[in-house]
Amino acid sequence: xxxxxxxxxxxxxxxxxxxxxxGIAALMHEQFVLTDPENVALGPRANxxxxxxxxxxxxGNSLSFQSQTVLVDGTYSAIEFDLTIGNDSFEGIDLIEWKxxxxxxxxxxxxxxx
Length: 114
What we know:
The chain is of the alpha+beta class. It is built from 3 helices and 6 strands. It has one domain: Nuclear Transport Factor 2, Chain: A (Roll), CATH 3.10.450.50.
């Protein structure tokens, strides 16, 4: 299971960095919930995809999502990443819960670099 979740996590990283909303959608459970600095708990999947799509539209080609570390433990994966949008740089961690090969939740933590 660890290898499968690691591969799914890398698929998410690739989809997000390439702004592939369909690829991201395919990895999300229908009842997916996102918790991040802008959202207390956003769900289900359709609402999260709209939020991410709006982010991609605002960022255009200036978005870069690069993983530094991927950790897997049971049904969870964690991504330590660098995110750049235009002139703004962030570092963060996504904690993802997986079930039946799909993401059921993500808790995103971001810190803006100065």
